[in-house]
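Reopening closed ticket. The problem is back. First fold of the pair:
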Amino acid sequence: MSKLISAVSQIQLADQPASITSQGYSMEIEDPTYEPLAFATPVTATNTPSSPLRVCPQTRVVNYQTTWHHLRGCADVGICSCEIKSGLTCRFNVPRITKSLWPDAKQTANLGLLRDYMLRHASVPACTKAAGAVGTDGVKWFGLAAGELGMVACEACHEDIVLSTTFSGRFCPLKQVQGASERWTCTISYSYVSRALQILSRRRDQDTAWVEFVEAARKRMALPTCEGKEINAIQCNWYRPRQSVANLDFCETCYLDQLAMTPYADDFADTAEGVEEKLCMRACDLQLINLGECVYLARTKGLRVQVILQAAAKIASSPRCFKGMGITNGKFYNFKSGSAANFGVCEACHASILVQHGVEAFFGSEPQLVAGTAWCAFNPSVARFNGLVDHWQQASETGYWGAYETWVKKYAALPVCPNFNLAAKSKWYGWQDCTICPECYETAVEGTSLATSMELHDVVIEGETLCCMYSDRMRGKYKEACEAGDATELRAFCRERWETYQQTVPRFKMIYETQSMQSAMAMSNMMLSMSYQHANAMSDWVTPSRYEYGNSSVGYHSSQYGVDSAEAWNKGQEGFAQARGGVAEASYLKDVWQAVE
C-alpha cells in the first residue's frame, strides 16, 4: 500500500497552481491538462524499461511492459507506475479519483468509497469518444436534468468527470431510449466541453457558471468534426495567433478543443474575415501531429505561449507534414549514432516534437537532403506508423530511449507485410509452399527451432507470392510445428490455404472493386440529378413556360433540365441496385477464405 500512496501522491500534486519559473506561468493554471511533474525526468539511453513513467498515459491502451499498481481486490483497475503484461490503461488519473475520492481517502484513512468505485468502474464500458456507440452496445446514458441541449454523457464520463464537479446534480439518467442502430456521441468526450465542465463548476456563482457551461456545450455541439483535410474556408470560422505567424490557420473546432479555456486562449483570435477572404481552400494546422503535440506539451508543462509560437513559425516555414502527403526533396533528421534506413524526421516535427521532448541530442545536428518524395516518421501515412508511434510513446513515457531507436533500426527498413495481397519481386523466407515475408519472419519466426531448416532465407521470388504467417491462426500452427519439430503438416495446410485463396480472394476482390466503381458512378449521377434539379427550378423562375417536357418513365417537367434530372436520378438508383447485387457472393467467398486464413 505504501507504493500506492507514493505513486499516487505525485498525481495529486498536479492539482496545484504552477510555480513562478522562467518558462512557466506565474498565474494559477486552471487547465485540467496541466501536470507540473509530467516529463520532469529526461529521456536517456540509460533508463531501464522498468523506470517509473514520466507521464500518465491515462485511458490510452499501453502496449509496452511497465510497472503497474492496483488496489487490493481491484486487480482489473490498473494504476500506472507489479510487473504485468502490456495492453492496460490507467484508470486512476481521472478527476473523480484525483479530485474527490483519493483526497477523501487520505483524509479519512478509509479506502471504502474508492474501492467501491473501482469495483463498479471495472464493468463500465469505456467512452468511445468520436466513434460513438449504438443502442446494441448497451451504454448507459445521462443527460441534463432540465433537458437543455439534448447533450448526452456516457456512464464512464459521468462517473469519471461529471460526478467530480459541483454540477453533478444537474445531470440525471436519460429517459429517452436509444434505438438499436442509433449512434450517439458522448458530449463530454469533446475536450472543450469536458474542460468547460471542470473549470466553470469551480466558480462561486454556480447559476451563472452553469449558463456559461450550457452555452459552451451548445457551441461545441454545433461544430463539425475536423478531419484535417482541405475544405472551403467559408464553411467555418478560423483562428490565428495574435502575434502573426504566416500561413497558420486553426478551425474553430480545433481552437475550442485545444486552446479555448487554457492560458493560451487570448493569444489567438478569430480572423473575422469577410466572405471574399474565405473564397479559398484551407486545412486546419492544429490537425498536424507536430503542432498538436507541441500544444499538448506546453499545456501539460505550463510553458509560455512563445514555445508554441516558435514551433509554429518553424512549421509554417517548412513543408507541411500533412497526412497523405509526403515531402519532396526535403530535409530530414536521422539518428546521431548511425542513420536508420527508410527513416527520418522532417524539420517541422524536429522543432515541435523532438526539441520539445528534449530528445534532439539523439539526432544529428543538421538535417540531410533526401531526393524524391519521403515520409516523416510522424506522418500518419508513413509505413509502420502504428509501430513507430507505439515505440515513440514508450520512449517518451518511460524515458528509455532504446525502446524507440532500437526498434526503428530493426524494423523501419523492412518492407511492410503484404497481408493477403500478393507481392511480386520480393524477398521471402520459409519454404516454397509456405512463404514468409521479412516482417513476419522477424516478428514470429527468427530464433525458433524450425528457422534454420527453412529452404528460403532472404530469397527474391519474381512471381506473385502470398505471405503465410501474418495471421494469428497461422502463427499458432507454426508454433505447433515447432513444438512437434516437423513442418510437414504446416506446409500441407499452406498448400490447401493457397488453393482456397485462388478460388476466393481474387473473385471477392473483383466484386468489391466493381461495387466501389458502380457506387461512385451512382453517386455521381445522383449529384448530377440535383444540379439539373436546381437548374430546372431556376429556369422555371426566370423563364416560366406553359409547355411540359418528358414522358411516362421520367415524368413531366417544366424544362429539359427536369427531364435530365429525372434520368440521372434513375441511373443513380439503378447503379446502387447493381452495386448491391454481388454482396451475397462476396460475403460467402470472404467467409470461405477467412475460415483458413
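Second fold of the pair, where the issue appears:
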Amino acid sequence: MNFIFNIFKSVSPAPLAKVSQMTDLLHSYMPKRFNNSLQRMHRLNMKFLENPVVPKKKSPLDGKPFAKGIILRTLIKKPRKPNSANRKCVLVRLSTGKELTAYVPGEGHNLQEHQVVLCRVGRLKDVPGVKIKCVRGKFDLPHVIKESKS
C-alpha cells in the first residue's frame, strides 16, 4: 500500500506556466469555428429543453366543421409545379364574414354569383391558398350527375 502512495508523491503537479502553454497550443490547433459551433449546439439544446409552446394551426372555419357561404365569383386556379390542370374554385363569403377560396370537387358545376354553398375544411395540396372545399348535394351545388350508358 505504501508503494502506491510513494508513486503519487513522486508525481509533482505541473507548473502553471506549462499548463497555459499547453492550452495555448491546444487552442492554436483547434479550428476557429469550433467554439462557434459549440455555442450554436448549446442554443439548439436550450430550445428543446425549455419546451417552447408551439401555436396550434387555426382552422379556416374557426373550429367549425361546416360553414354556409355565398359565392362572389367563380375562379380557375393553376396547381403548383409538378402538376398541371385547371382546378375549379369559387370565391366565397362565409357566414362568419371571411372571404376564402373554396374548391368545387367533381366534374362540372353550374355555380354562379350569389348562389349559396356549404363549405367544409379540406385543403387542396397542390393549389396555394385553397383551404376549404364545397359540399356537393347541399344548397345550390347539386350532386355529380352520372351519364348513363344507353
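Update: turned out to be a display glitch only; the data is intact. Strands lie at 66-77, 87-94, 99-103, 116-121, 130-134. The chain is about 25% helix and 25% strand. Please close again.
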